[in-house]
Specification:
This protein has 521 residues and is mainly α. 52% of the residues lie in helices and 5% in strands. The strands form four sheets. A three-stranded antiparallel β-sheet has the order 4-6-7. Strands 1-2 form a two-stranded parallel ribbon. Strand 6 and strand 7 form a beta hairpin. The longest helix is centred in the middle third of the chain and has 31 residues. The two termini are 20 Å apart.
Length: 521
């Protein structure tokens, strides 16, 4: 899922030793922002490289410099073979299979590996970091197969495919999106392939960059979808003749000091402000309480917001990290470590998948309620024009239910499924890459689920003839009606659902709400 406009491609990201922001990552991965290295990064890389060159010509065992890798780390490598060692590493580790991952994922992992190089803790030459800059700026995207990473010792296979392309081997997508030989794209861009030197192959692949990039993009998307979920919940409440009383501020913080819940409740309460539909039944005592999917919307959506907040903390910490093994310390020591293990990132990737799945689940329950004449408080069956002749949105809910069910399967944690590798040297792995791949599907599905609720709730509101919706929900409906027709006889539904999904993903739904309810967050 990508949201926002593409005007960020005019940005320039200057990489220093101090790291990058979420916004930097999104600008590069999704919108083609240009990159350059600043003087502090160049100086730090030059300093650490001097230490590596000293070790590279000596006999002191240094993992990945003068030894083999993984279970072969006990093998001493002669000085004359240490450059070949790096080339062989990349060629053998570029062992991925399956369909190519999305361009934004490749750009994200390359940018994050570049960020680590710029920290000066990996011992690579400035020329190697500049090669990554050149690839990204030239819009050359290595073909990275989906399968190959266990989320430990770094995202090895995905990063190896990127490193292989820098060497002028393997396949890439050129700026026109055509798959070509890497060397062809390099020459077309006026660049040259890189000859790896000591430690550099290892430094290019020992990171959590793929899973971290996907985490940051998922957080960005879920922040937008959380707003949309509050909007569609408010619209469903309005269409189903629910009450707004349960969203009053005094019923949330500090009565129950869950921060996300208070935010979602305030969003829903604000979206329903000045609704004639809600006011029309304010004194009706025939229904004491709304169903959970209406009344507890902020409790569920708020918990999702809190999960996003926790995941953001973990992602920010990882962004501040210099993940490599071995790492060059400021005093010149080259020290092996286990920071490449993706557990911190993998756990929150799985956590977000669970939370996002439940957000879609409660959305689907509201949709189903609106389509069921026994529970919709006077709406026609399936919101059809002529029930029986017309089926209305009956099958749209089937699609929504299928997406919810798919997400429930994808919410099964990947991070509990460690499997040993490398002759039991790497005997516990994070499966963070797999967790990230699952989460991307969950997020895409959640957008579609919310789009179906949006279409359903808008139609339900419009069928409350003679009653005017809240100004904020009316603004959203007006935006929706630019691309999706209102109530009427049956027609081809799929294009309308796709159009609604595009509105959700683009941020236009929340933008329309914010025109009236500026406090939406």
């Amino acid at each position: 899922m990508a949201n926002g406009s593409n005007n960020k491609n005019a940005m320039k990201i200057v990489l220093s030793t101090s790291g990058v922001s979420f916004e930097d990552l999104i600008a590069v991965a999704r919108f083609g922002a240009k990159i350059e290295l600043d003087a502090t990064a160049i100086s730090a890389m030059s300093d650490s490289r001097a230490y590596i060159e000293k070790y590279a010509s000596g006999d002191i065992p240094v993992y990945g410099v003068s030894t083999g890798f993984g279970a072969l780390a006990t093998r001493h490598i002669d000085v004359k073979d240490r450059v070949q060692l790096q080339k062989s590493l990349i060629r053998s580790h570029a062992a991925g299979m399956g369909p190519a991952v999305e361009k934004e994922v490749v750009r994200a992992l390359m940018f994050l590996r570049l960020r680590t190089m710029a920290s000066g803790r990996t011992g690579v030459r400035v020329e190697l970091a500049q090669a990554f800059v050149n690839f990204l700026n030239a819009d050359i995207s290595p073909v990275v197969p989906e399968f190959g990473s266990l989320g430990c010792s770094g995202d090895l296979a995905p990063l190896s495919h990127c490193a292989l392309s820098i060497m002028g081997e393997g396949k890439v997508h050129n700026p026109e999106g055509v798959i070509v030989d890497s060397l062809v794209a390099i020459k077309a861009a006026g660049l040259k392939p890189v000859e790896l030197e000591e430690k550099e192959g290892l430094a290019l692949i020992n990171g959590t960059d793929g899973m971290l990039g996907m985490l940051i993009m998922a957080i960005t998307d879920l922040e937008e979808l959380s707003k949309v979920a509050d909007i569609t919940a408010a619209m469903s409440i309005e269409g189903l003749l629910g009450t707004d009383k349960v969203f009053a501020p005094e019923l949330h913080f500090p009565l129950r000091p869950q921060v996300g819940q208070a935010v979602s409740a305030a969003n829903i309460f604000g979206m329903l402000r000045n609704s004639s539909i809600v006011a029309s039944h304010i004194n009706d005592t025939s229904q004491v309480q709304d169903a959970y999917s209406l009344r507890c919307a902020p409790q569920v959506a708020g918990a999702v917001r809190d999960t996003i907040s926790y995941a953001t903390t973990i992602a920010q910490r990882e962004l501040e990290s210099s993940i490599d093994n071995p790492v060059v310390l400021p005093d010149g020591r080259v020290q092996s470590n286990g920071n490449f293990h993706g557990a911190p990132v993998a756990y929150v990737l799985d956590f977000l998948a669970i939370a996002a799945t439940d957000l879609g689940s409660i959305s689907e329950r509201r949709t189903d309620r609106a389509l069921d004449r026994a529970r919709s408080h006077g709406l026609p069956p399936f919101l059809a024009e002529d029930p029986g002749v017309d089926s209305g949105l009956m099958i749209a809910q089937y699609t929504q239910a299928g997406l919810v069910s798919e997400n429930k399967r994808l919410a099964t944690p990947a991070s509990v499924d460690s499997i040993p590798s490398s002759a039991m040297q790497e005997d516990h792995v994070s499966m963070g890459w797999s967790a990230a791949r699952k989460l991307r599907k969950v997020v895409d599905n959640l957008s579609r689920i919310l789009a179906i609720e949006l279409v359903t709730a808008a139609r339900a509101i419009e069928l409350r003839t003679g009653l005017k919706p809240a100004p904020a929900t009316e603004s959203v409906i007006k935006e929706l009606r630019k691309s999706v027709q209102g109530p009427g006889a049956d027609r081809f539904v799929s294009p309308e659902l796709e159009a609604a999904d595009l509105l959700v993903k683009s941020g236009e739904v929340s933008a329309a709400a914010r025109k009236i309810f500026a406090e939406l967050i």
